[in-house]
Amino acid sequence: MAVSSLSKSRDTKAALLDALNGPGPFPGIIDLFGVGGGLLEYRASLLAGHGFATMALAYYGFEDLPKEFDSRNTDYFEEALCYMLQHSQVKGPGIGLLGISLGADICLSMASFLKNISATVSINGSGFSGSKAICYKDTCIPPLGHDLRRIKTHFSGLLDIVDIRNDIVGGCENPSMIPIEKAQGPILFIVGQDDHNWRSELYAQIASERLQTHGKEKPQVISYPGTGHYIEPPYFPMCPASLHRLLDKPVVWGGEPRAHSKAQIDAWKQILAFFCTHLGGTQKGAPPKL
Questions:
Q1: Can you tell me whether residue 86 is helix, strand or coil?
Q2: CA 84, CA 188: separation in Å to the nearest integer?
Q3: What is the pTM of this model?
Q4: Which among 4, 9, 101, 129 is annotated as catalytic?
Q5: What is the Cα–Cα distance from 45 to 1, expressed in whole angstroms?
C-alpha cells in the first residue's frame, strides 16, 4: 500500500494489499524516509512480503506535495494514520511506524502526539526538532538549530556535517527534544555508531535517559559499530556519500562496508521481530548478533 498523498494512488494501494498472503486484515505500518523527499516504496514492498500492510508515505518533493521541506506539521501525518486505521485490510487497534533520519523524527513526533500507535522504529533518528519546528495543534517544539561554520572537510574532499547541530543544553530536558515519554507504545532505536549525519548514538542515549527520567521503561537500543547513516534492508549497497538535498552539496554519511552490510542484515531481523511482537505478527524475536 504505497501512497503519495491520501487523495491519490488508490490503485497502487490495492495492488500491494493484494500481494499479501491470506485474507487479512494485516498489521499496519507507515513507512517514512528522510530529507531526500519523494516517494520510496521498496522498504514498504519488503514489509508487505512479510505480511504487513504498509503505507510508504511521501511528505514533500512528490507530485502535488510541497517541493521543499518547510515545516513538520503533524496534521498531514495524522490524516495518514486515520486512513490506515480505517482501512478494512489493516488490523487494529494500533499500527506501527518505521522511519529513517528525518523520517524517524517524524515517526517519534507522531508516536508522541497521536493515539493508536503501537510500536515505533527509529533508524538513526535524533529525537529532536532539528532545523524546523514540530507543531501539533497548539503545541510547537522549537528547533534545536545548527551552525554551518562547524562543517568540516573530509579527507576525500566531501563535507562532514556530523557536528553542525547546536549543543544540547539541558540534556534530555532540552526544549527542542520530542516528548517521547508520551508515546503509548514501545520504541526501538537502531543506531549506526559511525553515523556522520548527526550523532545518532548520543541522541539514542539521551532519548533513553528521557524515557527513564519520566518513569518509562528503558527502550531497546541496538547500536552497530562501523555503521553509517543509511541503514537499509539487507544486501542493499552502502551509501557512503551523496548530495545533501537541503545543503545542495555532497556529504559523507559514514560507515565501513563490511560492518555496515552486516548491520543491515541484523537490523532488518530486529525490525521484523519488533513489529511481529508488538503488532500481532508471528515471527519470533531475533537476538542481536553484533
A1: helix
A2: 21
A3: 0.91
A4: 101
A5: 8
Q: Which of 195, 260, 266, 278 is catalytic?
A: 195
- The architecture that CATH gives domain 2-279 is 3-Layer(aba) Sandwich (3.40)
Q: What is the CA radius of gyration of the chain?
A: 18
Pair 289, 266: CB distance under 8 Å:
yes
In tens digits, the chain (290 residues) has pLDDT values of: 444 333 444 443 333 455 566 778 999 999 999 888 888 999 999 999 999 999 999 988 888 887 877 666 788 899 999 999 999 889 989 999 999 999 999 999 999 999 999 999 999 999 999 888 899 998 999 999 999 999 999 888 899 999 999 999 999 999 999 999 999 999 999 999 999 999 999 999 999 999 999 999 999 999 999 999 999 999 999 999 999 988 889 999 999 999 999 999 999 999 999 999 999 866 544 455 44
Q: Is 229 a catalytic residue?
A: yes
101 a catalytic residue: yes
Name the catalytic one among 50, 196, 229, 260: 229
Domain ranges of the chain: 2-279
